[in-house]
Amino acid sequence: ADVTRAAIRLNVLAPPQPTFRPGARTKMVLAVSDSQGDVLGLYRMRDATVFSIDVAVAKSRNTGYYASDRLVDADRIDANNDAIPDVPMNVAFTNRTFRFLAAPRFPTGAESDAPAGDFSILNMPGVNPRTGENIANTPLPASVYADPTNATVVSFDAFNASRNFRDPLNLKNQNGIVFFPGSSALFRKSPGPQPADLVGGFGVSGDGVDQDDVVTSVGELSLTAPASIRADQYFVSGVRLPYQKGNRNPLA
After folding, report:
1. Using alpha carbons only, how large is the chain's radius of gyration in Å?
2. pLDDT by 10s per residue, the chain, length 252
3. 200: which strand partners?
4. 170 burial class (0-12, 13-18, 19+ CB within 10 angstroms)?
5. DSSP assignment of 19-77, as one string?
6. What pairs with residue 122 in β-bridges?
7. CA distance 88 to 84
8. Rounded Cα–Cα distance for residues 180 and 209 (Å)
9. From the CB of residue 107, how many other CB atoms can be counted at a distance below 10 Å?
């Protein structure tokens, strides 16, 4: 319990013969927002981390916005800077996808000469993308990094507090971007061949990001994004985008 948050919930008998008893369960905060960012449901399990309230709500708003028709061009992916987005509109991203694109190396784990992710602040002017060093002869004004048109996603987020990307809707329905997993956009299936309708976003936060993803995958079951429009059906610079991931045999 002194080392990891997940270990706090393990029921351990006292030394000299420590024994782990089965039955420990993760504790989460779960949030659902509609397509306009209004919070429809918010539930905190007993003993879940309090900061997760804000995180879960932000995740639900992030995913709902990114799959919507109001996604602005400045928030879309253009890794080769050809002014043509690499992924079409209305694709369901998760906060795991956002983190992957915000990493200082793309893909995560690549060698030091790999480029930064398209969302990374290392792509901004005046910054050495290999080291993060400020290389401008004179400091650039904050307005460069806060620019609503040209700033990268991470830069805009860092210099515009509590914004949901560049979502043009009500600022009261925004509370920042989360760059770690545990979320999904929610879709209502229509009968027949009609496409599913985006109805909002689902955010989960608690005892670890991989655990957040597992709980999300169960909680979204009847409202999952159609497989054809999930982020993991698309590639950026030859790399498949991630959607969700869990630890091995997470439900055992």
Report:
1. 20
2. 344 555 566 666 556 665 655 556 789 999 999 999 999 999 999 889 999 999 999 999 999 999 999 999 999 999 999 999 999 999 999 999 999 999 999 998 887 788 999 999 999 999 998 888 989 888 899 999 999 999 999 999 999 999 999 999 999 999 999 999 999 999 999 887 788 999 999 999 998 899 999 999 999 999 999 999 999 999 999 999 999 998 888 776
3. 34, 186
4. exposed
5. -EES------EEEEEETTS-EEEEEE-TT--TTHHHHHHHHHHHHHHHTSTT--GGGS-
6. none
7. 10
8. 7
9. 17
Token couple for 120: 């990374």
- Its pTM stands at 0.90
The b/e string for 60-96 (b: 16+ C-beta within 10 A; e otherwise) is: bbbbbbbbbeebeebbbbebeeeeeebbeeebbbbbb
Q: Where are the alpha helices (DSSP H) in 147-208?
A: 153-159
Q: How far is CA 113 from CA 129, 201, 239, in A?
A: 9, 36, 16
Pairwise CA distance, residues 144 & 151, whole Å: 7
Q: What domains are defined for the chain?
A: 26-240 (3.30.450.150)
Tell me the residue length of the chain.
252
Quick one: angle between helices 52-66 and 95-102, nearest 10?
90
